Structure formats: structure tokens, C-alpha cells
Amino acid sequence: MSVVNDFTIQVATVNGSGSQTANLVLLRSIFQMGVPVSGKNLFPSNIAGLPTWFTIRANHRGYIARKKEIDLLVAMNPETAKEDVLSLEPGRTVVYDEPLKLNALRDDLKFYPVPFDKIVAEVCPDAKLRRLVKNMIYDGVLARLLSIDLAEMEKALGKQLGKKPKAMELNGNALKAGFKYASENFEATDAYKIERLNKTAGQILVEGNAAAAMGCMFGGATVVAWYPITPSSSLPESLIGYLRKYRMDKQTGKATFAVVQAEDEIAAIGMVLGAGWAGARAMTSTSGPGISLMSEFAGLSYYAEIPGVIFNVQRVGPSTGLPTRTAQGDILFAALNSHGDTRHPLLLPGSVEECFSMAIDSFDLSERLQTLVYVMSDLDLGMNTWMSPTFTYPDKPIDRGKVLDEAKVRELGASWGRYKDVDGDAVPWRSLPDTKAPSFFTRGSGHNAMAVYSERPDDYQNNLDRLARKFVTAKSMVPAPVVNLRNGAKIGIVAYGSSSFATEESRDQLREQHGIETSYLRLRAYPFTADLDDFIRRHERVYVVEQNRDAQMLGLMKMDLDASLITKLSSVLHYNGLPIDARSITDGILAKEGK
Amino acid sequence: MSDAPSTPAKKVNRLGLDLASYRGSKTTLCAGCGHNAITERIIDAFYEMGIDAKKVLKLSGIGCSSKSPAYFLNQAHGFNSVHGRMPSVATGAMLANASMMAIGVSGDGDTGAIGAGQFMHLMRRNLPIIYIVEDNGCYGLTKGQFSPTADQGSKAKNGVVNELPPLDLCALAIELGASFVARSFSGDKKQLLSILKAAIAHKGTCLIDVISPCVTFNDHEGSTKSYAYVKDHDEVLGEVTFVPYFEDINVEYEAGSTTNVKMHDGSHLYLRKIAEDYNPSDKMAAIHLLHDTARRGEFATGVFYIEPDKEDFTTSLNMVDTPLAFLTTEQVRPPKAVLDQLMDGLK
């Protein structure tokens, strides 16, 4: 019996062995055959030597979240091969390096031994390069076993290495040699098969960090200050590439941006605030440990009302921990980041497409609200390869918010105060240096509405109350949740960020396999809007899916929602460092439903 | 030209502005605080140089010193930021608008302790900024604890003796890459004013360490940062005379006795030589001098090091002439064709 276009391949290799090219070629060749795919790299905090796994899921229905079960294992790493094989379900397939003799471990799996060293020696005369091209052989073997068109693999290889003719030739030969070996030594193709579909037309493959970087470029970011940290670094690094290519002034060849690799995250956020204060669209990108260091400045931004954007590509805690494992663990911390009373808007991209669009929106939102905005991505979204519709070019010009121009200065005259609410939306008018607008002195909270130094209790409290009202205004500016209501559904599910795809798949499982109809609300921002209240009110029970131990988003809801709504909520949590999968959500809900 | 006024002409600078236009709010520091004298010299320097205060950004960290930007140049935007983090805020602000002139005021604790990291990296970048350290060897706003510039053996008001050696911020700044490094004393009006005016003419990092006694917590016998001690141990390097590019040069000096530094904007800085072979563009000589005077228990004041033409950080970033803060959507958002091209590459 064959399984067509619905299985997961896991390639187990050693970090630094050059398997990334082979894995991306495999991924892309399936994509080119019109079959939806996703790729996840499970890697250690290490440059070379430790085990790493790359998982490719092909799914004709378009599910792109992680799937727990592995259907086809490519075992290249002696260190993990035994454990990897023992953890497979019966009936699965193993392609392995022949000397490992894995076939002796179990008799309920289908084994394909491949003498990689022997084959690579034949196609790669230079012994030093063999390690790097060896992996391409398993692509050739899989092309044969899974009926992937070899021409598609060659095309995908061209996309990866097209600019390097020598590497292209060596890898191309390895690919063909693997295919030939499999054709000559294995009687038939495997049960798992890729057949052409037409479900990837118009789609792209991209990582969330690259998508966010593009968004920053089109969003008009002008000052970028950052400090290297996994899993965030590839965002500013991609951005630097895009800026240098597309944001140089045509006439003068000069940059319409400034990028600084700062001495630490404190300096990075300090530069962002300095730049935002002086009128730039400024941003930084970091992960949890960086957010910790930025906390003091984050509070200052809140009180002094200075715009700026922080991308938080979340990972598990703490800083001396597992930097290459994913989590949605900074939700509470970011929303309330700093001492004193503080609240920060969060944007919650649920796809690479939203990494792009929300990056653009974040700058407008930040300037309109004159406060820091956090874009809460994570390692899974940021560093893994996702299939997505092509991105949409922004249809609105950049919105700089309430910045005083000459006309407004004339209109407001002496009544202008930097922290005065003249429009009733609690958002004051901002004056920039080097303009005709009046100057003022920026301090944290020791000021009155006119930005004059004050330690009066009423001035402090009035300002805090206005800031709270500004957060209410934010509700009308943040992206509304995406709601999908099902007739008669008693159960509602709330999820956000990288949990979204697994949650949607879980809803199908619940309906098709367990007869449970669910409605769905995907949060896209904090502060919450009235949509959330409505959604909870409509359902008997609402499950909040998130990737942290302490139900952080639920915690934020408890701070804001009416008690009658809070009692309807319970959590489905996933926090082992791996990306969330649909089965875990389904099982979690079934358990709570007593089924 | 307008008619001659009937009343005696108010004294004005080359912009037609009087000294009062350069003042700030009333100081809230202690009476007699050295910082207030520095504030007065800053006002004088910007007035005499005829700088448009609207083109100035005033920045500070936290501490007594960091309050002082509120007391000068009311027409300039000011930012009292985070303890020890003025350098990063100033860096960001200057990237947003490189056409501005930045003046950062910090203290010895704000710079030498909590802000040592940011101080170092600002020096290293040679950000265009006048970076003033109002240096009193103690934390005034928290009631007199030692700071990292307190001298070994100096006594606090409560009798505690400082056991650790001090940081020499000038020696560090020279080593780290600042292109204008000077020390002065809040009580030396003439020298401090000349140094500040020269700093205004310089484009690059100007680190000015100004010894500024704390009258409340560090002005007693046994303190090496008291007025009396500083007056006795100030080893003035030689006269500092600054002639801005817009004034006629009218300086007389004996050949060989003075170094004439031609500054990038065409101004001249005349430094009377302390020793015949002292060269203010020689890093090692400057560091030697600082070590030698410190070893004798003195402290040198004057301009130790200057590199007038060193490329500053904002110039090195090759930004467009329009400040980044004022770029339009058209200038910062590439056309749709670019997105289409990027999308095609990912298909």
C-alpha cells in the first residue's frame, strides 16, 4: 500500500556536515512538484560536531505544522542512529549509512542500506570535499525511492548552488550517483511517494526572519541597532543584505539607513530610543535574554512616549539555556516589560506572511502610538522554512503619527504641550528636533502635561491615567483577531503566533476523527479587542493554546477580562522546546473534554 | 542695514542673539556646585561660537551632572535618559539626524562605572559629540559614595578611605579612539571656555573631563576632589587659545613655543607647549603625560590629544544628506517591482 504526498522525512546528520544544501534541495524539489511542504531544522547550540535533525513534511492538504511521527528516516549520524531507529513506529522506512548495520536493530521496518563513503569516493576525487557532497547522495536515493523527478532535484540544486559551478557539478554528480545506486540495488520504489500536484503555484518558501527583514525594509526602517543572538541574528543580517541592495539612493549612492551592531542589547535599545526620539524609524531585533537587558529602556520609552520596534524572536529561557529551542515564553514579560506600571503593544505574527506585513505595520503603529511595539516571532517561525502565498505590497503610505508640522504648530500655538491630550485619544502631539516646532526636555515620568519638570502627585497620576487611556486607543489601531465561527460549536479555541498552523490542523482532526466541531480565534495583537470577549461569550468552553508552561497569554487575559469570561478559559500547553504539533493540541483538548 | 538703535546696542553674537537666548531653566543643584560653573561656560561657548541652539541635541544619563542639560540652551531638545546609557541614546539620535550637534553631559559614576561599556564604544566609534564628564569623584545624588575616578587614598565625608586606583577617563578615551581629549577644572573659566569652543569646532568625539568639586559631599580635607586640593594640584598644560574660523587671527606667540592646530572647520587652536617636543597628535605622548602627572599626585589640564581630520562615525556610515528622520515614503520604501523580484526569487 502506498502513501502519497502525506509523510514526514527526517534526516539525522552531524552539525556542520553541510547537510543544509541537501535538505533544502529535497524540500524544494517536493515543493516544485506542487506538493505543500515545510522544513524544520532541529539543531544544537554548536557550530560543528553535535547531532542535528532536519524534518521535511509533505502534505497534500497543505498542513505545514510539525508532525510528531517520522515516516522516513535518513540515518547519517552514528551517534543518534540507534535511538532514532528505535523510536520509529512499525512499518516505517529507514535509509542508512551501510556500515551502521541498523537493519539488525528491528525487523518491523523497511531498510535501505547505502554505502555513502564508497559512492562519494567514486564521484568526488578530492577527499577533502567528500564530507560536503556526501549528503547529496541521499537526495539521489530518495529521488528514486519516493519517485521525485530527478530533474526537479537538479533544478532545486541550481537554485541553491547555481552561482558556484564547481560545487554544482560535484553535487550534481553525487545526486545522480545516489539515484543510480538506488535504481540498481533496490528492487522497487518505497511505499512513500511524491506525486505531482498543483498546490504550490504562486507560493514561496521563506524563513520568518527573512520575511520580517523584508517587511522592515518596505516599512521604511531607517535606523537599525542590534546585537547578535540566536534565533534573531538572521533577521538583521538579512535586513542588511536587503538594505544594501535596495535602499541606496539612486542619484548619490548613499544609504537611506544606518545599521549599527551595538556593544550589547542595552546599547541597541538605547540607540533605538535615541533615534526614535530624534525622528527616525528605529528598530532592533533580539530574543529573550536581550529583552531582559532592554527592560529599563523599555519603561522609559513607555513613559517618555518614544516610538521604536523590537522584534523578539523567542526561544526557551534562560540565557544560559537552550538557545536553539523554540517557545512562546516571553509573552507576559514583553507585555509588561520594565518596572513601574507599563504595558506594551504586542504584534503576534502567525505566519511568515504576517512576519512581513506586521513588520511594516509595527512602525506605523509605534509612531502613531508613540511607544515601543514588540513583534513576537519565535525560533520556529523565524528560522524554519515555511510555504506561504507571496507577500502583498503595502497599499498605504507610511504613517508617522502625530508629528507637529508648521500648520499644526500655528493651530495649537501656546496650548501645545508634549504630553497634553488635545484630541481626546490620549495620544499627544510630538515635536521633533530640527523642525520649526517648539523644543522640550524629555524625561521619564517627572513631568507634567507641558513636559515641565514636576514631582506633583496629581501630575504623575494624571499622566499614568492618560497612558492607560492611550492603551485603550491602541485597541482601535492593532490588527483584529482572525475569527472562524462554526455553527453549533460549543468549544472555542484561541491560539496565536507559530501555534496557528498546528491549531488549524488540530481542528480538522477534532472534527474528522472525533466529531468535535470547534470555532477558532487567532489573536494577532495585544491589547485585546472586544472580538475576544465576544468569542468567549459565544462558547461554553474556550481552550487557549500556547507554547509555554505558565499559560502566559491566558494570564494577560485574566488581567483584562470580566470574571464571567475567565471561568470559561482553560489551557492547552506545549513546552518541550520543539515546535507545537496538531496531535498534541488534539490530545490536550480531548483530555480536558474527558474523551 | 537697519537704522542705528537709539539705545545702546545689546551685545549679540554673529547670529544676532544675546547671551540670555542660550540660557536654560534655573538650576536645582547645590549652591556652589562645580557643575553650575560648567553650565555657565557651556552657555558662553555656544553664545560666542554663534551656534543655533535649534541645531543642538542635549543628552544625559542619570546623576547630578545629568540634570544640567536642563539648565542651558532652552531652545535645544534635551533628553535625560538612563543611568550610564547616554552614549547609546546620543548615537541613535545622531544617526537619525546627522546634521545636528550633540552635547552629552555625564558624571564620573555615570561614565566610569555603570556606563563604562557604552563610554568605551562611543569613543571607539568617534561619534560626533561633545562628551562632558562633570567629574567630582563621588555619587552626589545618592549622598557621596565613591565613584571610579576617586583617587586612591582619598577620604569620603564619613571618613572611609578609597582603596582602589582611579580610572583616568582621558587616558582611556585617547586609547579608545576619541579624536579630541581634554581635561579642565570647573573653576578655570578661561581654559574651560577655550576648550569648549574648540570642541564645538571639532567633528568627532570630544571627551572633556572637567574636575568639578562636589561642595556637599566631597569638599572636605582629605578629599582629592575638593576645591582647595584641585586648585593646589592643577598642573595647567599651558595656555589654550581658540580662534574660530569666523574671527580674525590675532594671536602672538613665540615660534616653537606653541602648537597651532588647524581644525577641520578652519578654526585654529593654539596650545602653548608644556615641553618642547610635546605633540598633541601623539597618542603615546599624551598617555605618558597623564601617567607622569598622576604619579606625582597632580592632574594635568588642557588639551592632551587632538586628531582634527579623523573620520567620524556618522560620516563613515555614508548616509544621504537629508537626515534619516525626514526621509519620505518614496525615499524609504522601494517600489513594488522590488517586492515582485524578491518573491520570484523565493518561488
List keywords for this structure.
heterodimer; A: alpha/beta; 4 domains; 7-stranded mixed beta sheet; 20 helices; globular; B: 347 residues; Rossmann fold; 8-stranded mixed beta sheet; 3-stranded antiparallel beta sheet; 13 strands; 31% helix
Description of the molecule:
The complex is a heterodimer of chains A (595) and B (347). Chain A has 595 residues and is α/β, with parallel strands linked by helices. Chain A has four domains: 3-200, 3-Layer(aba) Sandwich (Pyruvate-ferredoxin Oxidoreductase, domain 3); 206-389, Thiamin diphosphate (ThDP)-binding fold, Pyr/PP domains (Rossmann fold, 3-Layer(aba) Sandwich), CATH 3.40.50; 406-475, no CATH class; 482-592, Rossmann fold (3-Layer(aba) Sandwich). Chain A is 40% helix and 19% strand. In chain A, the strands form five sheets. In chain A, strands 11-10-12-13-15-14-21 form a seven-stranded mixed β-sheet, sandwiched between helices. In chain A, strands 3-4-2-5-6-7 form a six-stranded mixed β-sheet, with helices on both faces. In chain A, a hairpin with an 8-residue loop joins β3 and β4. In chain A, 54% of the residues are buried. Chain B is of the alpha/beta class and 347 residues long. Chain B has a single domain (19-326), classed as Thiamin diphosphate (ThDP)-binding fold, Pyr/PP domains (Rossmann fold). Chain B has helices at residues 34-49, 64-67, 86-96, 108-112, 116-125, 169-176, 189-201, 227-233, 283-295, 313-316, 329-332, 336-346, and strands at residues 56-60, 77-80, 101-107, 129-135, 138-139, 145-146, 180-185, 205-211, 234-236, 240-243, 258-262, 268-272, 299-306. In chain B, the strands form three sheets. An eight-stranded mixed β-sheet of chain B has the order 2-1-3-4-8-7-13-9, sandwiched between helices. A three-stranded antiparallel β-sheet of chain B has the order 10-12-11. A two-stranded antiparallel ribbon of chain B has the order 5-6. In chain B, α7 (189-201) links the parallel β7 (180-185) and β8. Chain B is globular. Classes of the chains: A alpha/beta (595), B alpha/beta (347). At the A-B interface, β9, α7, α9, α10 and β17 of A face β2, α3, α5, α11 and α12 of B.
